[in-house]
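Retro notes (design track)

What went well: tokenization of the new backbones is finally stable.
What didn't: we kept losing track of which sequence belonged to which structure.
Fix going forward: every design gets posted as structure first, then sequence, in one message. First example under the new rule, 212 residues:
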């Protein structure tokens, strides 16, 4: 029988603990790194929904909730991408100054419209249940807005832009088959068609909305 001295056992234990700590730290680092570099579209949507629900369930004032919802939207929605899509082909005819002005107005329009409407909900419960990877750039995430005494169950599909896996962004919501981005594009197209494709007419509509 070999007897190991106390001093030897203590040194060995310290070495093992040091190695274990190094392995643990390394594991935590790589797990964290992985989360930072990629995020599955369905997890991203559920996380975004949960953040919004927390804001809406809080006791903060409506004004405070709106500001917090705007902040979430800036992080998770491709507002510029949606804006260019809803503007349609006329964007190719605009000068840089006009395009910059439209981008500024649309960003404000989107944030005000999105946050003020969502702030009317007290605590929407949305469950993500499936996803469909269309290609490397887009994934459709399927979810359900749970029914309450005041509203029926609503099917919501999220079109997520995934070209950059580190930074997925929402580009459209499809509610019961109706694309909100496409609907917005049709509204803007109607305004432009009624005004001989004068971009200033659309600018005025956006300015009036933003100032009210």
């Amino acid at each position: 029988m070999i007897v190991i001295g106390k001093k030897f056992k203590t040194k060995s234990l310290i070495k093992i603990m040091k190695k274990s700590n190094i392995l643990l730290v390394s594991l935590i680092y790589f797990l964290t790194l992985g989360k930072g570099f990629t995020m599955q579209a369905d997890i991203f949507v559920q996380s975004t929904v949960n953040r919004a629900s927390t804001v809406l369930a809080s006791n903060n004032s409506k004004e405070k909730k709106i500001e917090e919802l705007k902040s979430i939207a800036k992080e998770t929605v491709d507002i510029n991408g949606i804006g260019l899509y809803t503007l349609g082909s006329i964007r190719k005819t605009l000068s840089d100054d006009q395009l910059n002005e439209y981008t500024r107005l649309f960003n404000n329009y989107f944030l005000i419209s999105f946050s003020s409407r969502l702030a009317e909900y007290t605590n929407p419960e949305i469950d993500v249940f499936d996803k469909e990877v269309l290609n490397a750039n887009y994934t459709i995430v399927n979810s359900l807005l749970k029914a309450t005494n005041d509203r029926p169950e609503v099917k919501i599909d999220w079109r997520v832009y995934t070209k950059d896996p580190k930074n997925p962004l929402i580009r459209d919501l499809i509610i019961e088959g109706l694309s909100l981005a496409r609907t917005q594009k049709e509204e803007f197209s109607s305004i432009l068609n009624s005004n001989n494709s004068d971009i200033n007419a659309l600018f005025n509509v956006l300015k009036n909305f933003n100032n009210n």
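Added context from the reviewer: Strands lie at 126-133, 138-145, 154-161, 169-175, 178-179.
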